[in-house]
Write a structure and sequence with these properties.
single chain; alpha+beta; Rieske Iron-sulfur Protein; 25 strands
Amino acid sequence: MIIGAGISGLSAAYEALSYAREIVIVDENRIYQGSTASTTAKITVQHGFIFDKLLRSLGKKAAKLYYEYNLRGLKRIEEIVRNERIECDFRKVNSYLFAYREEEEGDVEAEARVYGEIGIPGEIVKIDARISPYKALKIHDQANFNVEKYLRGLTDILLKNGVKIHENTRIVDVYEQDGPEAIIADGHKIKAKRIIIATHYPIYKGFNFYFMKMVPKISYSVLTPPTNLEIEDANYISAGTDPALALRFVVGEGGKMLNISGASHEAKAFLSYNKQLDLLKDFGKKRFEIEKYSHAWCTQDYGCTDDLPLVGRVKEGIYIMAAYNKWGMAASVAGALLIRDLETEKYSKYAELLRPERVKLNAKIFTYNLGMVKTLLKTRRIPKRSILKLAPESGKVARLGSKRVGIYKDKDNRLYLVDVTCPHLRCGLRFNPLEKTYDCKCHGSRFDYTGKLLDGPALRDLYKIEIEDVKKYINL
């Protein structure tokens, strides 16, 4: 049984065809409509300064293993596309880690030295000056693709091989009791020989305190209409974080479109969603004279406190795949291979590096989570406004007596009212105007404007509020 039908879950199912007689996939929403649907889909081993960080924190062997792990995932995607003849706009491209400012060139050179130490074929070059006039670290044979087309093809293969997929089925816990067992939200239980938890946030308590070890991060994206802009078709990733930037072309029916993403920050930061988006738009306007964008969105990813994903066995027959730190394409496919190796060969050379139990509660984690107390208190403040005038397709958090209430008006002027207290640890939720969701600043739970749970660690929907209950408080 596989919980989650994004790229992690579907990849795990594809690899399980080689060792499992019966495969069932369940997802609380629709297939590949969670975090996978919002990805920028860069398939690369180049994840910022990850290898320099790993060399300094865990040593040369760990840095080299993590490179090989991601390279394995990249090559596996290419192999599947070729062997299964999946039409998904897959193409090999170069990838560039570029200095956005002159003072960042030293960091790029340091990462290049680590490449040399662990055997990554990279070189220092200059790229299109409109992106950056400073040094960049180039690596060959990376890739881009349309992830939705890829997963659609993968799903067709799974269905033809008898895999059963159940959408709109929420699992609220997984545990081991005479074998792996999952609990559905309605109370029913499912027993399986193996359970792979491939959800954005692991649906497995097991006294592991994942919410304390995983850091939710928000990233933003804009997409141009089809453009004739002349830039090398490649992956571009900025070295700095003020703002973080990434560029790539997306191939569509009307031609190629430029995707600018980044402006990332930890979810606990109280920043304006629209102002972060403006950082990307301003970059496009100043560097390429781009005035219009056809799409704009934001997405949330989890990263672990040590910058490595959580992939592997947590109990006999129970596996986890999570926390890719915004680099889930190659890493998730490599994770599916890791689990396949553990099942078929009882060994993976990557298992010890990425095992979910490796991250222990320590001073760094406690310090980070102490900061969450301040975030929690800030999110629980009662808004001053109690009279609202909402435009269609907009929402706000307002005061209802001594409580906080979320109000959303749809395009037909229907109102949706919910209690915006997160069911996880009672943090206050904030309305996200880009995604029309209520987001938790503490641990990353997300809900749509009707209150439906989209992402954990919360395990239930928000409480709905009847309009009659609020008329005396709010002028609607």
